Amino acid sequence: MYAGPTDSSLQRLQDHLHRYGIDKSLPGPGTTSAIAALNSLEYGTLWAMLEQHLLTPDQGRTILSHMVRETLFDLLGLHQGSFVFQLSSALSPQLMTQKVSALVTGLTQQIQTWHQLHPQLQSPDQCPILVDPESFRASTSEAAYARLVTWLDGQTSLRQIARYLNRDLVTVARSLLPSIQQGHIALMHPTAQAQASRPLAQLWPQRLPRIVCVDDSASIRAQVEHILDRQGYEATSIGNPLKALGLLFQLQPDLILCDIAMPELDGYELCAMLRHANAFRQTPIVMLTGKDGFLDRVKARMVGANDYLTKPFGPNELLALAEKYAGPGDPDRPRPDKLLADALAHELDFDFNHASVA
Q: Is the pTM of this model over 0.70?
């Protein structure tokens, strides 16, 4: 079993590489494309590091084992929710195998212990910050203080610290709990921390959420633009997937809607190409498809898509995804006077009547 992030982020892998001192040695996307196309960018990057002898097989197996445990810990620790295990192709190439049943027993005990740490500890993503350095130093060994002090900065999460130390989350949390209870260490919620650190200009965006739809169907493009435009989004559509590659770099959208069945370049290929570019590693991509099959959903996830929308779809379905990935639009906000730069206009052989830019 393997589970990776849906946003094609390499942060988790980079955290695990930190303890080996090679977190700055991540190879470029060009060296991972072949394997990543069959699995995920994270797994493809791990294999590229093995092939380049930046990582030993034992280190790779240790990292994979920790990542599987993290995923199961989060999944089994949910108080409520629904999820589905989907069977897909095995990892290729395969570095190791693990029996999930053997892992579950130990993880269940860890989860029970974790829940006993509430309410002081509520999430693995909480970030400890040192508020009384002298008292903390007096209550711990010099070696432990030296090892931990740089990470108690309010920006490094409990889970990241566990990764850096090659320890499980519960062990790290329990070791910090006395200092948290005594007030030597405080815990910051990641959302509150992120909001506090962002400049005011970023909290009030200067342009509407920009959504680009890549679809060879003129009627679908018109429908998407009409729905999004009425709800205060900056909507643009592109009919040619080959031209979309270059134009997307100039448009820098907040969300990409991509049809699967297109001539010359299908949606899977376009999505995979975008994910290999640094500019689109974090950009949400939603696949538009007339197929509602299991294999299409799996393949969409494998190439890095965040979600999918089955055609035909209604306004509510489209707007729910738009708000989820790009944020709310603003129907009452005045339109800007100018469209996108005139330099692009002669290249845009797609529907652009409603596009605008702040």
A: no
